[in-house]
Specification:
This protein has 24 helices and 13 strands. With 565 residues, the chain is of the alpha/beta class. The longest helix is centred in the last third of the chain and has 19 residues. The structure holds adenosine-5'-triphosphate. Adenosine-5'-triphosphate (ATP) binds next to loops.
Amino acid sequence: MKKSPLPVQNVQSSDKNVAGKEALVKLLRWHFGHADFRGKQLEAIQAVVSGRDCFCLMPTGGGKSICYQIPALAKPGIVLVVSPLIALMENQVMALKEKGIAAEYLSSTQATHVKNKIHEDLDSGKPSVRLLYVTPELIATKGFMLKLRKLHSRGLLNLIAIDEAHCISSWGHEFRPSYRQLSTLRDSLADVPVLALTATAAPKVQKDVIDSLNLRNPLVLKSSFNRPNIFYEVRYKDLLDNAYTDLGNLLKSCGNICAIIYCLERTTCDDLSVHLSSIGISSAAYHAGLNSKMRSTVLDDWLSSKKQIIVATVAFGMGIDKKDVRMVCHFNIPKSMESFYQESGRAGRDQLPSRSVLYYGVDDRKKMEYLLRNSENKKSSSSKKPTSDFEQIVTYCESSGCRRKKILESFGEEFPVQQCKKTCDACKHPNQVAHCLEELMTTASRRHNSSRIFITSSNNKTNEGQYSEFWNRNEDGSNSNEEISDSDDATEAANSVTGPKLSKKLGLDEKLVLLEQAEEKYYERNKQVKKSEKNAISEALRDSSKQRLLDALTRVLQLLACVEE
Ligand SMILES: Nc1ncnc2c1ncn2[C@@H]1O[C@H](COP(=O)(O)OP(=O)(O)OP(=O)(O)O)[C@@H](O)[C@H]1O
């Protein structure tokens, strides 16, 4: 049921510089129904309401959104939220509107009349919108920056929140070049406080974000990354008769739970989902190979608990706020501890006991090593980051000792083992885990003719189309499908589609989709283009031969260059 908005509270406490806790808690209870603030939420809110920059590091599901949603309700004016995905903005805006909070997002996917209405509101004497979600690409446009300056000059811009701020960092697992341009916000809107939020713990990402956004004397808030309600466990594929059967039995033994199963390849998602359905477990596959209608049906079914299990590639997950996920299973080894932490962290957002199960297989590890090495080779820099990050997750699987400790130490957080309290398989059943590792060593050396478990062969033949989600996230961090972000500016938009993405190894299908998107965006805004040019491109795009594809690509890039001039 929608609530009427609570009148703006007097959040000033006796200390004029700090917003009063009581009034802020009142807003939290009224609008969100939470009894009290969690962790560092209150500190972050008080900092930004008093006008101070803040860098807020909170684990997945820690409650970062509240840190900018409450400030939006605590003062008249607008909070601008920069978000990396259209789907993410849509979800949050929908959820806020259901709570009676005036939130909107601006994106080129919206109908013109919807966008016009939002702009009219922003231009009006007293805008009703409290939270405005936009993409970094829109911020980079001159028109929108002008709008922000006008809002600011009228005293209406309270806060700029950069959600998923690790996207700004080339060290972050979600690197997005367009995020870099957000530094212009500080130049143009110098005195508006900036709140950067992320769940990415690596210290170099943190420094990069603070520097890139030009944060001034920010309050740096770091929460522990420990997720005490998640039980961590590794299962060894090489020691199982059949991993599909094992997973099926595991899910059955847990009852009717809601779970996410991550796979590296789309075909594994499809096969595994068929297998689970065949043994009576309601499941569906989700990956970028499905069309968007199919994906949203699968997502809706899972969110509404019509389907119990979603078997997905890493294209799935960012921005999904399903609280009752009881298990996240990695059916193939993830590419880093960071990815593993983010993905497994989607379990137990309601803080109730949940499980992370990683199926580790030596073949999977070799495949991932091959993919990562390829990705390193394609980069101009000589960075060895992906493979060294990967070693951490391999160590997590291949060595004895507390799993929780290994996760936290990889983020630079000390963790005394006794605090684990048997909430990982290695602490609960140390002998069993040690035995498995011994067996794995013997099996692996027999099968792979090596005395070490750690094998670094690169002879795998892979079908790279299978890994488009992997590549996309690995190279520029954005998801592989069209839900990335967008722009209202033709050149920006098309560049964000073509530029960074085409530099990486994509399958033919993906390239065609990107070219089509670029072309569409170009024509959408440049109606005067010559008919012959349009035909040439359309014809080339219909043809999937490599040479024609290359010609089409060149053509689109030339057209875009013209627009830029
Ligand atoms: N103070 C609170 N008390 C109880 N629940 C809360 C509180 N703050 C947030 N939550 C709930 O915690 C869940 C996670 O919040 P939110 O989506 O903001 O997390 P997040 O840190 O942005 O996570 P992610 O990085 O995964 O997106 C939500 O369901 C939210 O309603």
